[in-house]
Amino acid sequence: MSVAPVAIAWAGSGLLAALLLPRLHRRRLAALVPLAAAIAALLSLGGGADLIAASAPGGLALGRPGGGLVLLSALAATVCLLLSPPPDSGEVLVIAACGTLSAVALASGSPLTWGLCFAAAFALFGVRWVVSAPARSTLAAARVTTLGAATLVAAAPFLPLDAAAVPPRAHLVGGLLAGGIAAGFALVPLGGWVSGGARLLRGASLAPWALLLLPAMLLSCQPLQATLPVEARLTFAAILLPAGAISAGWAALRGLSVPDGERYPRVLLADLGLVAMGLATPLSGARLGSLLLMITHLCVAPLLMQDPGSASSRPRRLAWAALSGVPPGPAFWGRFALVTALVTAFGGTLLIATLPVAGAVLVIAARSAIAATAATPTGSPGRAARFAAWVPPLAAVTVGLLPAAAVHALLGVG
Asked: Which of 14, 86, 88, 229 lies deepest, with the highest CB count within 10 Å?
């Protein structure tokens, strides 16, 4: 499928919304921006091979997984905007720009275009955070994410890297790619920019990273890593395995003690640590687990990124149950597939490192569900917001009941 209709829908609807909705006093209609992109992706969606940006040379064509991801991300952003306070023009423009750039990154067969898209998107996202809430943590977000994406651009001249590449060049490329992914995933010690920013910002402010850039980076990195020669894969794994393990453990541990409104970003960071470890192994189970965790967070994030009292407690409790890791929740299948692949590839030591993470996330989810019961609503949401609050948990439950079918239907991956 061509990426042009999706990019035009993102950019055109974003510009129109930023210009017209404030004058019409209809900022709540900003949810139509990602909805327009979702409709464009749905109309363009077709069959096609299992190809995405890094594995499809030439052109700007989305493969089936990339097209499905664009559709899913745009729908998640639509629900997020329905639940968030009405965004201002700057917020709408950043969401539209990040949506456009993430779609082009997924479709691009050029490593340079791929890296530049992420660099521009992370720069816009970071600047928006600084403008919205000037603080050390938001300054760190702008600095870390932009420099991290710049390492992806630095790796681009060496890609694609064939098996005959000399070892120093291969190690350099593996290190640059791993560094860029670690920055984008907010792995320890870089994860402070997400946890710090989450104390100041909610909902639509987090959407460009959590719902648009992060899934696009994950999906496009999977085939790229598999094409690297042995030396580059070794360096790639040597960086992401310990960084992912430390990040997962630290985020899960910190999530046990933070207030309710800051727990979801910690769980997201813990799962990103597991996903980063999964990227270090080419086993299909790791890929499937990463995709399931990504879909799970795209389902629940639009609700759990909001202020705790922004919606009824019942959908929040159901969303936390889906994220807890208790079967048949989708997070259980994703984490189980990831941990199984990691143990198969690297031995039982990683089982000791990952099981405490799963236990801590279960405790965090239970505490968050109890806190949601006691939360006092901050206002009276409209009918659309009340309906939208039920979409994330019900979608997550559906994925948990039919995990393999959901991954195949949404992303075309078996």
From this structure: 14
